[in-house]
Amino acid sequence: MHMGFIPIKNVTMEEAVEISKHLAKAVSERYDLPIFLYEKSASLPHRENLAKIRKGEFEGWPRR
């Protein structure tokens, strides 16, 4: 599943990023799932570009 946060009326990009990080942490802890953040919410530079992350599809993930 893919989900993104886009700031809308009266919400800044920084606020949207903080919301995405808060929700990712809550979902990860509650359901014991790994959550990967990308683009503006990424914690590491190599996770910022979604196209690069998707390269190789899911099956290629273990090699990275």
Descriptors:
single chain, 64 residues, mainly alpha, 2 helices, 0% strand, globular
What does this protein structure show overall?
- The chain has 64 residues and is mainly α.
- The chain has a domain at 13-54.
- It is 38% helix and 0% strand.
- It has two helices and no strands.
- The longest helix is centred in the middle third of the chain and has 19 residues, at 13-31.
- The two termini are 20 Å apart.
- The mean pLDDT is 83.
Q: How would you summarize the topology of this molecule?
A:
Blueprint lengths: L12 H19 L18 H5 L10
Query: Which spans of ≥5 residues are poorly predicted at pLDDT below 50?
Result: none
> What overall form do the CA principal axes indicate?
globular
Note the run of SSEs as H and E. HH
Radius of gyration from the alpha-carbon trace, in angstroms: 13 Å
The helix content, as a percent range, equals 25-40%
Strand content: under 5%
Instruction: Tell me the quaternary state.
Output: single chain
Mean pLDDT: 83
In DSSP terms (H or I, runs of 4 or more residues), the helix count works out at 2
Amino- and carboxy-terminal Cα gap: 20 Å
Structural class: mainly alpha
What's the count of strands?
0
Largest sheet: none
Summarize the structure.
By secondary structure, the chain is mainly alpha-helical. It contains two helices and no strands.
